[in-house]
Amino acid sequence: MVVVGAGECGTRAAFELREAGWTGPITLVGAENVLPYERPPLSKSVLTGPDDACEPTALCEGRALRDAGIEFVAGAAVTGIDRDAHHAVLSDGRRIGYQRLLLATGAAARRLPLAGIDAGGVRYLRSRADALVLRDRLRPGARIRVIGAGFIGLELAAAAAARGCAVTVIEAAPRPMSRAVPTAIATALADRHRQAGVDLRCGLTVERLTRRDGVLLLELAGGELLECDTVVAGVGAVPETALAEKAGLAVENGVRVDARLATSDPDIFAAGDCCSFPHPLYGGRRIRLEAWRNAQDQGRAAARNMLGDDQPFAAVPWFWSDQFDLTLQIAGLPDTAGQEVVRERPDGVRIRFGLGTDGRLLYAAAIATGNAVAKDIRLAEMLIARRAAPATAALADPATPLKALLRQAPS
Ligand SMILES: Cc1cc2nc3c(=O)[nH]c(=O)nc-3n(C[C@H](O)[C@H](O)[C@H](O)COP(=O)(O)OP(=O)(O)OC[C@H]3O[C@@H](n4cnc5c(N)ncnc54)[C@H](O)[C@@H]3O)c2cc1C
């Protein structure tokens, strides 16, 4: 068994292969020259934590890999797949034979096509190395300009503001996180950023980057010039599909897999941020998720299917984001629902439910301090998984426990 990519997904898959009973060799190949680590802390504690706690959380120690009999090849990329010979070809020329191979190559930060980008200074945030460079630049008073108000841009802005930087966020769309979250939640987050002194400007584009007398300048549409110490682009991610394309596998907004996470080659699977898959809870719509839990769940599911389990992947999408003292949680897909129902709890927290035209619950989203929404979102996730169509009055009524709705839902 060969796993390409030692991120969240690939590492979980390698361990699952062993736990599910595979006794033959397992090789985990990672292009980064470090032990596998978690990416979510990169825009959170790695940027804001004390100097002695700024490393991202390790996914596992080297000893755990050795104990599980997983051969970990770090700092080498798989550059080709010889599908006829069943060989993975490494950047150092090595060839590793496989019976089944998993592509867990993740995604890369989308590069910004900006005039003058060669003036230098545009950073991205995807890897440990990126985060450590940025951490060093988040000094009190530093002028940090963030292009893009998606999750990564906003988490970074919150971290920079917490470190005392002067932060500006430029977003082309009329509101932050335009596609990913319900409008009311995006507004609450935007308010929190502004309250913390972040200059969040929406409906505005950047024109070019220049350097004059050694000063980096960001020119905005309309001509305004912003002096910058650091410019960071958070303009989305693109799936790492180059290897799959070179190997002749089907690609469609990510490596195209079927419900069992198998690619167009039955001996090659793909999972995590790099793949698009049909979701049975959303009418078989093909989606690609960039979410930590999905990477874990798909890694494990792909591993079992590589061993012949043959199970469709149907987990409810789940995502969280931490910004300042607020945590946002979303279960399901917010862009699928037609009707929104709001439940206002006695503590003032609002849970937003999205329903389809058939009355089915398709998403639940909420924002609050700390972990205050976790339980309700977890229950909503179970309702979504059961394809429940709760009465809107009951959903809106905080006196009706979600647990009671779950008891009435099909099992
Ligand atoms: C800064 C940041 C913050 C995030 N915060 C959150 C959050 O708060 N909540 C949330 O739900 N999600 C969050 N995410 C998303 C989450 O981290 C990802 O969904 C998850 O890491 C995806 O895991 P993956 O294994 O599919 O891909 P990745 O983590 O991208 O790992 C893929 C690995 O494969 C390697 N690789 C690629 N090609 C090759 C090759 N040819 N050969 C060998 N190795 C290769 C790459 O170097 C990389 O190490 C965040 C992501 C980032 C970047």
Find the CATH superfamily of the largest domain: FAD/NAD(P)-binding domain
Given the helix and strand composition, which structural class is it?
alpha/beta
Unreliably modeled segments: none
- CATH architectural label of the largest domain: 3-Layer(bba) Sandwich
Mean pLDDT: 95
The main sheet comes to:
5 strands, parallel
Give a count of the beta strands, DSSP E runs of length 2 or more: 26
Q: What general form does the structure show? A: globular
Gyration radius from CA atoms, angstroms: 22 Å
Give the neighbour order of strands across the main sheet.
3-2-1-7-19
Helix amount: 10-25%
**CATH third-tier fold name of the largest domain:** FAD/NAD(P)-binding domain
Beta fraction: 25-35%
Measured between the Cα atoms of the first and last residue, the distance is 36 Å
- Could you say how many structural domains there are in total? 3
Ligand catalogue: flavin-adenine dinucleotide
Instruction: Give the CATH level 1 class of the largest domain.
Output: Alpha Beta
InterPro entries: FAD-oxidoreductase/Apoptosis (IPR050446), FAD/NAD-bd_sf (IPR036188), FAD/NAD-binding_dom (IPR023753), FAD/NAD-linked_Rdtase_dimer_sf (IPR016156), Reductase_C (IPR028202)
Domain Reductase C-terminal: 318-406
Domain FAD/NAD(P)-binding: 2-299
Keywords: FAD, Flavoprotein, Oxidoreductase
Describe this structure in words.
The protein is of the alpha/beta class and 411 residues long. It folds into three domains: 2-108 and 238-306, FAD/NAD(P)-binding domain; 111-235, FAD/NAD(P)-binding domain (3-Layer(bba) Sandwich), CATH 3.50.50.60; 325-408, FAD/NAD-linked reductase, C-terminal dimerisation domain (Enolase-like, domain 1). It has helices spanning 8-19, 45-48, 62-67, 128-137, 151-162, 183-195, 242-246, 292-306, 374-385, 392-396, 402-408, and strands at 2-4, 26-30, 70-74, 78-82, 87-90, 95-97, 101-103, 107-109, 122-123, 143-147, 166-171, 199-202, 206-212, 215-220, 225-228, 230-233, 237-239, 255-256, 268-270, 275-279, 285-287, 318-323, 326-332, 339-344, 350-355, 361-369. The strands form seven sheets. The protein has a five-stranded parallel beta sheet with strand order 3-2-1-7-19. Strands 9-16-10-11-12 form a five-stranded parallel beta sheet, covered by helices on one side. Helix 1 runs parallel beside helix 8 and helix 9 runs parallel beside helix 11 (402-408). The chain is globular. The model has no long low-confidence stretch (mean pLDDT 95). The site of flavin-adenine dinucleotide has 36 residues, from helix 1, strand 2, helix 8 and strand 22. Pfam families: Pyr_redox_2 (PF07992), Reductase_C (PF14759). Keywords: FAD, Flavoprotein, Oxidoreductase.
